[in-house]
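Colleagues,

For the teaching module next term, I've prepared a clean inverse folding example: a structure given as tokens, and then the sequence designed for it. I'd like students to try predicting residues themselves before seeing the answer, so please don't circulate the second half yet.
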């Protein structure tokens, strides 16, 4: 879904992110059919919650797509269990989708929902703790019977015992209304019930004046082979819309204007982190004029990249779903040797299995992208929850001295640019590169400005074509480890090129010739040369946002960008000076990072781990960096982070 934004970029609304549990300033008016009131809001946070089989992710995705086409800024947070089909009606089986959309620039999916749609008692109980007083709750009353309530520990009906008096509760018999609306289709009760999420989507689309044409077209395309099911879902969707329009329980609907001043001019679409990363890899291969090869083994939450790239054979993309993680990276490294832009994708446990081959890639000095979509660990851990705990594994998780560059995107849309950047480094310096995304970025989404071809970097490489060294007797030969004096990269010789035959393997190479060498001095030289190559990689200086000459710097990396920036906005809105810097390049660090850190009395490093970046900062720069850590499988909340940072400022 794309939309055009022709207004110039405006200043971000600092106060928008500072509102807690509210929908922003509003004014009232009347519009549309009947006499129902329409209130205009600057932002809304909605959470859909139900069983993992209730279609909450699809419902949230469709609402998000229509919101993107309308032109709002948005940020999403899907949250679902790891099981394919978790036990129905249980707390562990609850799936939710949170969407924050606004008429101004926003950064996070929001701390607390203004509207909770609860499809059953489990969804209500699992999410009510996050809902602020006064918020709206839409509940499917058909599910609030004795057995489902007892299953999650309700001794009495929360819709009747007064426990929800602090909220604006809308009891709606979603299941009954959906079945009644679909009578004409002759579906079984079970089949008709499956469309109750579309009824809920229609109701919320009415409440917030979302477009409907895209969802109806989507449903007809999704169920093209089952036209009766397609029309049943469209009918349920329309019935939900009409219910909102006619029922007296919903006397107010809401408008959130497009974010016309939040974006530079351009064509935008809603995009998830994994999709943006996939597009970035394709763009990198096209800009390098190389075939793209993905060797991968499916693993949550990285599998969507494999799925997406497999659809793009027309761009010269080859995908190989291997039998295991080791085979996936082995095939990718072979493709790199053969002259492809090679990629392997995985999550934390898969990185451990790939580590030996990553070390081989370091020794062979071939370009290879290792995409790690981090998740909660250790071991299998929390497959569908987010974490940033693979940084030290990416830095040091190999035997011997095997340095690898590390790049981390900061938002879902930034995954596109980070993929291009990682490819640039890999191709220029002939090295494997880690690209560290995470589950929060991978599954979350936001508007992305589609770049023009002229905005993309030129990544074309020159393969070796002939001899590059002259022996003492005048003979011209090819030395596979003769290096570029600027980048220290060795030549990339495609197998089969006449005269460029050379030895490869994991045993140490002799400098220049690439022959097997056990010479101690040579090994020392090669180890230091490989390290120097990584240390000398050209990366941009880190930028510091410090309008008030603050004494405290908050330093982040990766997906903490949104919550940190939102927290910083809150503090500055309250006249609390604080500086912010965010790292994309974690190995090597930007050249000016040491000077930046030295300017501040206090450095705070929020991370979704137990302090891995802070450990690196302390070790390299001898700075007393203070960690603020969280490892609960969820991203930071801006309000909580702002409170922590304020304590640091006041200390």
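(Answer key — instructors only)
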């Amino acid at each position: 879904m794309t939309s055009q934004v022709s207004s110039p970029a405006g200043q971000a609304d600092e106060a928008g992110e500072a509102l807690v549990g509210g929908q922003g300033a509003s004014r009232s008016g009347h519009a549309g059919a009947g006499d129902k009131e329409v209130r205009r809001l600057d932002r809304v946070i909605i959470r859909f919650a139900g069983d993992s089989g209730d279609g909450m992710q699809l419902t949230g995705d469709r609402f998000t797509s229509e919101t993107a086409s309308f032109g709002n800024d948005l940020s999403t947070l899907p949250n679902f269990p790891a099981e394919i089909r978790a036990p129905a009606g249980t707390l562990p089986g609850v799936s939710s989708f949170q969407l924050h959309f606004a008429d101004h620039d926003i950064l996070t999916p929001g701390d607390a929902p203004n509207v909770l749609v609860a499809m059953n008692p489990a969804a209500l109980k699992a999410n009510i703790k996050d809902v602020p007083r006064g918020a709206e709750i839409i509940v499917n009353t058909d599910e609030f019977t004795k057995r489902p309530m007892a299953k999650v520990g309700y001794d009495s009906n929360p819709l009747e015992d007064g426990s929800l008096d602090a909220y604006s509760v809308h009891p709606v018999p979603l299941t009954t209304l959906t079945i009644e609306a679909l009578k004409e289709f002759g579906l079984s009760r079970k089949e008709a019930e499956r469309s109750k999420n579309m009824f809920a989507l229609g109701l919320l689309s009415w409440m917030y004046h979302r477009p409907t044409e895209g969802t109806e077209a989507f449903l007809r395309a999704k169920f093209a082979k089952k036209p009766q099911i397609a029309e049943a879902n469209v009918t349920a969707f329309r019935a939900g819309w009409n219910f909102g329009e006619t029922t007296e329980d919903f006397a107010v609907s809401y408008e959130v204007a497009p974010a016309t001043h939040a974006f530079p001019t351009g064509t935008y679409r809603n995009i998830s982190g994994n999709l943006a990363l996939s597009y970035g890899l394709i763009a990198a291969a096209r800009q390098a004029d190389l075939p793209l090869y993905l060797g991968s083994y499916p693993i949550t939450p990285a599998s969507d990249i494999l799925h997406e790239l497999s659809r793009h054979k027309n761009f010269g993309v080859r995908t190989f779903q291997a039998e295991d993680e080791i085979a996936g990276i082995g095939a990718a490294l072979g493709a790199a040797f053969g002259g492809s832009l090679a990629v392997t994708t995985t999550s934390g446990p898969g990185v451990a299995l790939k580590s030996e081959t990553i070390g081989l890639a370091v020794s062979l000095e071939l370009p290879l992208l290792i995409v790690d979509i981090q998740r909660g660990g250790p071991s299998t851990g929390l497959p569908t929850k987010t974490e940033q705990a693979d940084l030290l594994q990416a830095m040091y998780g190999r035997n011997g001295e095997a340095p690898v560059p590390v790049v981390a995107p900061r938002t879902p849309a930034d995954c596109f640019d980070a993929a291009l950047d990682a490819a640039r480094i890999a191709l220029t310096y002939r090295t494997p590169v880690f690209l560290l995304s995470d589950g929060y970025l991978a599954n979350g989404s936001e508007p992305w400005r589609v770049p023009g071809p002229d905005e993309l970097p030129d990544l074309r490489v020159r393969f070796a074509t002939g001899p590059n060294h002259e022996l003492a007797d005048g003979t011209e030969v090819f030395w596979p480890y003769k290096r570029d004096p600027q980048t220290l990269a060795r030549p990339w010789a495609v197998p089969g090129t006449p005269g460029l035959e050379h030895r490869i393997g994991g045993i140490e190479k002799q400098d220049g010739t690439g022959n097997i060498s056990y010479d101690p001095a040579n090994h020392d030289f090669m180890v230091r040369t490989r390290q120097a190559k990584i240390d000398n990689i050209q990366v941009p200086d880190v930028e510091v946002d410090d309008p008030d000459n603050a004494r405290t710097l908050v330093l982040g990396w990766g997906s903490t960008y949104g919550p940190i920036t939102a927290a910083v906005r809150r503090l500055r809105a309250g006249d609390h000076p604080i500086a912010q810097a965010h790292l994309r390049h974690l190995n090597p660090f930007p050249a000016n990072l040491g000077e930046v850190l030295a300017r501040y009395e206090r450095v705070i490093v929020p991370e979704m781990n137990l302090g891995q970046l802070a450990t690196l900062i302390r070790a390299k720069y001898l700075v007393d960096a203070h960690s603020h850590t969280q490892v609960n499988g969820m991203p930071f909340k801006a309000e909580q982070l702002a409170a922590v940072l304020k304590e640091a400022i006041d200390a």
